Amino acid sequence: MTAVGHASRGAALAAWVLVTPAAQAHGERLPGSPWIEGAKSLLQDPSCLLLLLALALLLAQHGALARRRAGPVVAGSLAAGAVATALGAGADLTLTLLAMTILAGGWVAWARGSPQATPESAAAAPTQGPWPDIARAALLAVGILGVMLMQAPAETASASERLGWIAGVVLAAALLSGNTLGLLLALLGRRPGLVRRMLLRVAGSWIATAAILVLVLEISRRG
Amino acid sequence: MIRKRQVLGLVLALVASVVWAHGGHPVVEGEGPGTAFLNGFVHPFGGADHVVAMVAVGLWGAVLGVPALWLLPVVFPLVMALGGAAGVLGAVLPGVEIGIAVSGVAMGAAVALKWRAPLWAAAVMVGVFAVFHGHAHGTELPDANHPLAYSVGFVIATGLLHLAGVALGMLARWPQGWVLIRTTGVAIAAAGLWFLLRAV
Q1: Residue A83 contacts B, CB cutoff 8 Å
Q2: How far is A141 from chain B, CA to nearest CA, in Å?
Q3: Is the pTM here over 0.90, yes or no?
Q4: I want to staple B40 with a disulfide (CB 3.0 to 4.6 A). Which of A26, B54, B109, B150 is the partner?
C-alpha cells in the first residue's frame, strides 16, 4: 500500500467519523442504528481510543514483516471479542486498558536499541530474538480483546441489536486502528529513519504519560 | 528543510512567549472532552517557569545531540507523570517551586556553557526536575472534568514546548546559530534565577 493509499484510507475514516454524528444529529433511529451506536460508543471512549493509538504506534515502530504477522492476531482478537460479547461477556476494564496503554506507550518510548544515527550503525545493532514479537502479539491480542469487552452491548438489548452493536464496534476498531497505522506510515514514511524513530518514541512517551496520570487519578477516585 | 525547521522553531518560541506574557493559567470555558483537551493544552503555557524549563529540556537535548535529542524529551514527560501521580495522590513534596526554578537555572546554564554532560547524568538531572514539574501539575489534575482529554492536551503541549527547544537547537547547524542558542541559555538561566529569588 502506497502512502497515497494510506492517506486516502485515513480520509475515508475521517469522513466516516464526521458523518456518523451528523447522521445521528437528526435524532431519528436510522436503519442499522445499533451498529452506529456501537461504533459511536467506541469512538467516544477515550481510554479505548488511546489504547488503539498506542497499539498502532507499536506496530508502526516495527517492520513490514511484523505488521503482516500482526494481521491475524488483530483479526483473531476482534473475532474472539465479538463472540465473547455476543455470549454476554463484558466488563468495565478502564483501569486495565489504561495500564495496557502505559505498557504499549512505554514500549514504544523505550524500545530496545536506541535510534541509530546511520544505516551502518543500525545494521550493527543487536537482534532481539523472538520474545519481543511474542510479547507484542500478546499485548495486541489482549488489548483489542479488552477494548471489545469494554464496549459490550447492553444486556437488555435484543439479539439483533446486540449483533448490530458488536458489528459496529468491530468495524470501528478495525477501521480506526488500521487507518491510524496507515496514516502514521504515510506521515512518517518519507522521513529519515532516525527522525521517524525519534518521533514515534516521543509520541509513545506522551501517550504513556497521559495514561499514567489518568490511571492514578482513577485509582484515587475509586479508592 | 533546515530553514523550515528553524522558522518553525522560532515561531513556536514566539508563540510560547506570547502566551507566557499573559501570566496565570488560562481557562477555556465550557464542558465536554474538547474543552477539557483545550484546557489541558493551554495549561503548561500558563506558568512561565514551566515554559522556560520545558523549552530548555528540548534545547539541551538538541545541544547534546543523538541520543539525548530524543532521550531527554522522552524521559521528562514519563518521569513528570510519576511526579504528577504523587501530586494526584496528595503526597507532599517540599520545595516544589524552588525545584522548578532551579531546573531553569541549571538547564539554562548547561546550554549557555555548552556543557556536554554524560547521557546518564543529563537524563537523571532532567528526571529529577521533571518530578517537581509533574507534582505541581498533578495537584491541579483532580479538578478536570474529563481527565484523559485534559491529560492528553496537557502532555501534547508539554511535548510541543520540548520540540520548540529542539527546533531552536537546530540553529546549531549555522555557525552563528550557536550565539543565539547560548544567548537563549543565558536568558533561560536568568529567568530561572528570577523565579528562584521569588520562590525563596
Answers
A1: no
A2: 23
A3: no
A4: B150
